[in-house]
Amino acid sequence: MSHVHSQPRLLHEQDDGLLVVQLNHSHHLNALDDILLAELGELWTEVRTNSEIRAVLLIGTGTEAFCVGMDHEPDADYQNRTATVCVDLGVPLVVAVNGLVRQEGFHMLSSAAAVVCATHVRFVDPPPGSPFSDVPDTVAALAAGLITAVVPLWHLRATAESMARSLATGNRLCSGVAL
């Protein structure tokens, strides 16, 4: 018996040049599976061809995890799947990290013009060669210049959205703030 997933794995809305994208797979800690990867691939193609989109904000659903990597199903082939999540969109990408980042979740951070993390964020099992390999927490990541800001969870989306809107209008001045 196969499990039918009735909700989309990816939510998105466009408003005044900003596309807000939410990973909507929180019951699996926003793990990437074939469905979510396909939806991301289609959406990223649209972003690159839609001149009305001037910036993208990416966030995970829930507060436990931004993305824990691949959702490995039996007999699934996940080789080279990270190409879907680590892309040049042609517009600035701001990532709002709302929880745990693990394995392939780091690839989305590497594509970002700005990364805003909630104070409780943890970095676990970065891929080999990742700049996050020696970074234990958000304070160290901010000091190393790997993320742009650290804010309380309640302020995460507003801060990231403000940065994304600023980048959408061509204002590239975003500074890191640790609270």
Beta-strand percent range: 15-25%
Evaluate the radius of gyration.
Answer: 15 Å
Percentage of residues assigned to helices:
10-25%
Supply the helix-strand structural class. alpha/beta
Strand order within the widest beta sheet: 1-2-3-5-7-9
DSSP summary: helix tally: 4
Q: Helix and strand succession?
A: EEHEEEEHEEHEH
Write up this protein.
It contains four helices and nine strands; from the N terminus they run ββαββββαββαβα. The chain has 179 residues and is α/β, with parallel strands linked by helices. A six-stranded mixed beta sheet has the order 1-2-3-5-7-9, sandwiched between helices. Helix 1 links the parallel strand 2 (18-23) and strand 3. The protein is globular, with a radius of gyration of 15 Å. Mean pLDDT is 84; it is low at 172-179.
Question: Can you give keywords for this protein?
Answer:
single chain; 179 residues; alpha/beta; 25% helix; disordered C terminus
Task: Provide a brief overview of the structure.
Helix content is 25%, strand content 22%. It has 179 residues and is α/β, with parallel strands linked by helices.
Q: What's the helix and strand layout?
A:
Blueprint: E1 10-15, E2 18-23, H1 34-49, E3 55-60, E4 65-67, E5 93-97, E6 100-102, H2 105-110, E7 114-118, E8 123-124, H3 138-143, E9 149-151, H4 153-168
Parallel strand pairs: 2-3, 3-5, 4-6, 5-7, 6-8, 7-9
Antiparallel strand pairs: 1-2
